[in-house]
């Protein structure tokens, strides 16, 4: 009896697990050690669709330009990132495209790459030092947060109680976005922030914290989140509570865009992740060919507000025609 | 310093004058320590109730209990393992893997030769739990057949299961688990979102799991054997207990409970992502320890574990409710856990002290 | 012939148990002072007091005629008293030199170990022990037991030891190793080192001892120059009473053969070679032997806890080829293990749960345990075996040693065995409980059980067994009936290398 049950259970689970196989092939081929033709792409975990889009765009662009690629993820762990940069050095990469794991913690590793004559092109996040990386191409988080804050205030009718979910405190963007929001929101005396909690960029944590915040402050009219996964978690809580609350996120992820189209989440701020990644690869290609940078180190790319008006034209972190 | 031994021996041998009163005090203290999880919980409720008028509202209590449910179910499973003297560090990852398996089946179905099959939500839940049980069985077999220390075996599984969860979607999120009537797979939200008689289904499930676990641990031969294996494995072997079977069974239970918790979380969220329930194993172990389960095995209760989960949940939510920063939340939670273990030690000392005097 | 260490009117009690009562013991300078006694006679307690590990409840210790307080083993060591325990306390993964200096490493500067000087000094000590060729850098784990013992002694000698206490040092040694050890002891004696030597082995200590002191039930009963004693006198002093007054002899009629063992061989560090034996209904069979003779390994194999390499076990004439604990239990064997704490009791459980542990599945209704049935079954056993406990729900650790033993026995009886295996059933329990356990064994035999028990106490095995088998080095070396058995015969057979050729 027990044995038969076990067999049945086993069969079912193996079948279910086998569904993994479908889309997991990614060519990480490192067969030819042709040093000058390898671009190493290091990003946070592709768990988050934003980084996934970034990764894929850089990968595709590099391949288009005739490079081999090695795509790695540091999972926001500076130690792991450091090891991966060492890998890039030992494989004599032509360039590194990096979405780094910490504004200060990443500097030494990037310097090491520079010392080994490997140029690093930073995307999405800056570091707290110049002259180490060849380029730091980031979306203008402050400008984007301003857009998001303005839209949030407008949706709130410039008054009422709201809560803010912030990202991981160690991440620069968490602070920059929060400041950007408050730069706008604090100008309205009738807009009152009644709760501010970190949900560490995590969807489940955002869900539970929002539920609790809604208990403490039943009159909340809006929730502004530091990224889209937290906005999704917050919106799930709002839905479960059957309340009509404005939720605004940041990133422009496909899930949030589709939610906007269904009149769920009200707005998000799209970071042109794909565009930034492609720019970084183009500049790396130029650097490899000319031996010098053709752009200033600090480059800031403006973000775009996504709301029901333009959500239809958004695909994979890019707004058509922008 | 020289004669401490002598003095210790003499107090143990003959009660000093005034001992009856001291003993009564010791008994009272012991009672308080035995019920310490409940005491802490009551203090928490009184404290937050005084600080926030929202804390003791019916809706908040229900909500907090719902938050507790997920950790409580994980912790009940882990308690089975700890009672045998083992440990299961992989439950968070198993929860994540089960959510991804379930999420994948609901969102994109199962690819079979000639098309895609969709299962009903109920079947998906059963499969998800089965995946957890299977992973638990692997843990158990690695530990018993290959003699790997439970800490190492389940630490390995922590990575393996998390990796499988990420592989399942290539790192992505299954964003919409509502299902469609055409596919006949709607209704997954029932376990995580819906309520029955005003109480969330997740809470009902926690109650059922807890009752079942209490019956198994206290009222069945299997439960008795779990305690024996944890209390003295060699004695259990000599008493004819098939120790390896018991061990495999507790890891299966732990895996199944972890999967169930993962499914509840996923159902509530309406989305499955590979990092679901990361580091939840620590909360689960903390709940068990808070509830008086000895990490050395053989000692502990399910009800204690559930209370431990309540303490952790009510504390976390209370801190969020009154607006304490995340950093302080960590500090307070950690301090409470260490405090609990200190009182556990005190209880053991007091208990053996009293036993020696009465013997 | 002066006294170096004396214990004056020393008593020691643990809780309510008196381990030593008013013992006045003298160790003569530069001589080998042998201390003998049965298990529980108080030898180890006396040695713990002399080596500073325990403090006497009353009485005093004199060193060179001066009263001293030995606050700790370290303190005793500083005064020149070293001890070598029966269980070696060496680190097998460290070298000889590292072991000798463990905890008191020679330093170079404040932090660094002076390995070169340690090695040199260790080499000197090894030479003093007659081990000139032994490299102090060798790992202790690679040495045979005899040499490990010498490393322990070397450790004590390093401290400039004047009094060396040795607690049953030969129990695990081969004959050749014993010879080496005795040479070393003779050397030490010439170097004016006083040896206090605890032993069970009558034939051995008579070769080396100058003085013999006999302890019994915590009292000193004899102190005599070895030359004025003989083996029989020492045994009489040790036992001190008519054994038959303490133990009940079974005399019930013998029935069919319940347990038959043929050619059983068990591999391991303490192996069992080609053992054959039978136990019949109504019979109490004793196995006498020293520690390390393979007795425990034999019964553990019978119980399915060890795998046999060869041989056959028949219970009630049926071959039991499946060597698992469950199958042997089902066949009708039950074991009361030697080490209650390690193998018998589940310390975290109550008296009731311990009694019912092996048979708990019987007390269920619809798959759930029935508290009433459990309570009744446990109560019945408590009454039958006269177990004294604060209550069935009390923790089993609250019971005395004898009652704990009865709990383990109760559990074994509940499995409804036909042959009961008892490994040192009276070890570590007081005299009253010993008599009760002995009576129970006789009663069980009278009820038709077969009883096979292991004992290392001469008087006990002689008084209780209908038949005595002697084990040495994994083999059965002799068999006696109750009428033919004598202490001397048992002792000589237990030290024998020769195998009993034909069973009568």
Automatic annotation (TrEMBL), chain A:
<comment type="similarity">
    <text>Belongs to the bacterial solute-binding protein 2 family.</text>
</comment>
<feature type="domain" description="Periplasmic binding protein">
    <location>
        <begin position="39"/>
        <end position="292"/>
    </location>
</feature>
<dbReference type="InterPro" id="IPR028082">
    <property type="entry name" value="Peripla_BP_I"/>
</dbReference>
<dbReference type="Pfam" id="PF13407">
    <property type="entry name" value="Peripla_BP_4"/>
</dbReference>
<feature type="signal peptide">
    <location>
        <begin position="1"/>
        <end position="21"/>
    </location>
</feature>
<keyword id="KW-0732">Signal</keyword>
<protein>
    <submittedName>
        <fullName>D-ribose ABC transporter substrate-binding protein</fullName>
    </submittedName>
</protein>
<dbReference type="InterPro" id="IPR025997">
    <property type="entry name" value="SBP_2_dom"/>
</dbReference>
From TrEMBL, chain B:
<dbReference type="InterPro" id="IPR001851">
    <property type="entry name" value="ABC_transp_permease"/>
</dbReference>
<keyword id="KW-0997">Cell inner membrane</keyword>
<feature type="transmembrane region" description="Helical">
    <location>
        <begin position="188"/>
        <end position="216"/>
    </location>
</feature>
<feature type="transmembrane region" description="Helical">
    <location>
        <begin position="148"/>
        <end position="168"/>
    </location>
</feature>
<keyword id="KW-0472">Membrane</keyword>
<feature type="transmembrane region" description="Helical">
    <location>
        <begin position="68"/>
        <end position="87"/>
    </location>
</feature>
<dbReference type="Pfam" id="PF02653">
    <property type="entry name" value="BPD_transp_2"/>
</dbReference>
<keyword id="KW-0812">Transmembrane</keyword>
<feature type="compositionally biased region" description="Low complexity">
    <location>
        <begin position="11"/>
        <end position="20"/>
    </location>
</feature>
<protein>
    <submittedName>
        <fullName>ABC transporter permease</fullName>
    </submittedName>
</protein>
<feature type="transmembrane region" description="Helical">
    <location>
        <begin position="117"/>
        <end position="141"/>
    </location>
</feature>
<feature type="region of interest" description="Disordered">
    <location>
        <begin position="1"/>
        <end position="20"/>
    </location>
</feature>
<feature type="transmembrane region" description="Helical">
    <location>
        <begin position="37"/>
        <end position="56"/>
    </location>
</feature>
<keyword id="KW-1003">Cell membrane</keyword>
<keyword id="KW-0813">Transport</keyword>
TrEMBL record, chain C:
<dbReference type="InterPro" id="IPR003439">
    <property type="entry name" value="ABC_transporter-like_ATP-bd"/>
</dbReference>
<feature type="domain" description="ABC transporter">
    <location>
        <begin position="5"/>
        <end position="242"/>
    </location>
</feature>
<keyword id="KW-0067">ATP-binding</keyword>
<feature type="domain" description="ABC transporter">
    <location>
        <begin position="246"/>
        <end position="498"/>
    </location>
</feature>
<keyword id="KW-0677">Repeat</keyword>
<keyword id="KW-0813">Transport</keyword>
<dbReference type="InterPro" id="IPR017871">
    <property type="entry name" value="ABC_transporter-like_CS"/>
</dbReference>
<keyword id="KW-1278">Translocase</keyword>
<dbReference type="InterPro" id="IPR050107">
    <property type="entry name" value="ABC_carbohydrate_import_ATPase"/>
</dbReference>
<keyword id="KW-0547">Nucleotide-binding</keyword>
<keyword id="KW-0762">Sugar transport</keyword>
<dbReference type="Pfam" id="PF00005">
    <property type="entry name" value="ABC_tran"/>
</dbReference>
<keyword id="KW-0472">Membrane</keyword>
<dbReference type="InterPro" id="IPR003593">
    <property type="entry name" value="AAA+_ATPase"/>
</dbReference>
<keyword id="KW-1003">Cell membrane</keyword>
